[in-house]
């Protein structure tokens, strides 16, 4: 009998994290969703009927205690992240430090403390969330894009350092979630869709399906890759 895979998804109470957990659960994996918002987490746990863990990925002690409480996991999805758009001239270093702490250091904390719980085999997988913003260099994003570029560097560094555990990253493009829905109200959705070669904005499920593949046995030889899921935005422009 095949042993059920056990997967931790951070930032799993909504958006891409929720869709990822839901997709993995549909494959009969065991999933633990992590979130720092207790109310949102409780509601998500009931909807998904899965295990939950309430802690902040920026708190190293809380992260360490959580992973120490687990027996073994097969995969980690470092999805927890925030963005605070700001121009450099108006930048709050306090707020942007929070972006670095959540996006970058949260990923470092979770990976570091998950590692002892993962078998040293290519069946184990770590999936980091980057963003198309790391490649498109969009203005006004504060330190968000820089934090994601750092995650891409660490993904490839860890792919070498942690092998045979596979480490890959996925980079969402224009995705409609609870956190980004305000950017797609009214005619904004159509305008943004027109900027995408595939002429539509993405949904969380578009990302979740690729994460599912990277965790699966089908991706057993995929390691150190940055995969943008953006409808072609990072490929360039068709206009000349």
Structural class: alpha/beta
Number of strands: 7
The total domain count is: 1
Radius of gyration: 17 Å
* N-to-C CA distance: 57 Å
> In percent terms, what proportion of residues is strand?
5-15%
At CATH level 3, the topology is Rossmann fold
Oligomer: single chain
For the sheet with most strands, the description reads: 7 strands, parallel
CATH architecture: 3-Layer(aba) Sandwich
The CATH superfamily title: NAD(P)-binding Rossmann-like Domain
Question: Key terms for this structure?
Answer:
240 residues; alpha/beta; Rossmann fold; 8 helices; globular
What can you see in these coordinates?
The chain is of the alpha/beta class and 240 residues long. The protein has a single domain (6-231), classed as NAD(P)-binding Rossmann-like Domain (Rossmann fold, 3-Layer(aba) Sandwich), CATH 3.40.50. Helix content is 40%, strand content 15%. It is built from 8 helices and 7 strands, in the order E-H-E-H-E-H-E-H-E-H-H-E-H-H-E. Strands 3-2-1-4-5-6-7 form a 7-stranded parallel beta sheet, sandwiched between helices. Helix 2 links the parallel strand 2 and strand 3 (51-54). The longest helix is centred in the middle third of the chain and has 22 residues, at 93-114. The protein starts with 5 loop residues before the first strand and ends in an 11-residue tail after the last strand.
């Amino acid at each position: 009998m095949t042993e059920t895979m056990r997967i931790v998804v951070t930032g799993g109470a909504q958006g891409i994290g929720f869709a990822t957990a839901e997709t993995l659960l549909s494959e009969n994996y065991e999933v633990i969703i992590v979130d720092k918002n207790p109310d949102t987490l409780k509601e998500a746990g009931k909807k998904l009927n899965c295990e939950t863990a309430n802690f902040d990925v920026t708190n190293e002690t809380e992260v360490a205690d959580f992973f120490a409480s687990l027996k073994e996991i097969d995969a980690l999805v470092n999805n927890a992240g925030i963005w605070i758009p700001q121009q450099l001239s108006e930048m709050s270093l306090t707020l942007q430090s929070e972006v670095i702490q959540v996006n970058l250091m949260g990923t470092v904390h979770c990976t570091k403390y998950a590692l002892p719980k993962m078998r040293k085999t290519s069946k184990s997988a770590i999936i980091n969330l980057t963003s198309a913003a790391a490649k498109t260099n969009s203005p006004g994003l504060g330190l968000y894009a820089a934090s994601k570029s750092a995650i891409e560097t660490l993904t490839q560094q860890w792919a070498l350092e942690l092998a045979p555990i596979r480490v890959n990253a996925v980079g969402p493009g224009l995705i409609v979630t609870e956190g980004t829905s305000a950017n797609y109200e009214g005619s904004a959705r159509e305008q943004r869709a027109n900027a995408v070669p595939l002429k539509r904005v993405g949904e969380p499920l578009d990302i979740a399906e690729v994460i599912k593949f990277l965790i699966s046995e089908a991706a057993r030889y995929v390691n150190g890759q940055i995969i943008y899921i953006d409808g072609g935005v990072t490929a360039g422009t068709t206009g000349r």
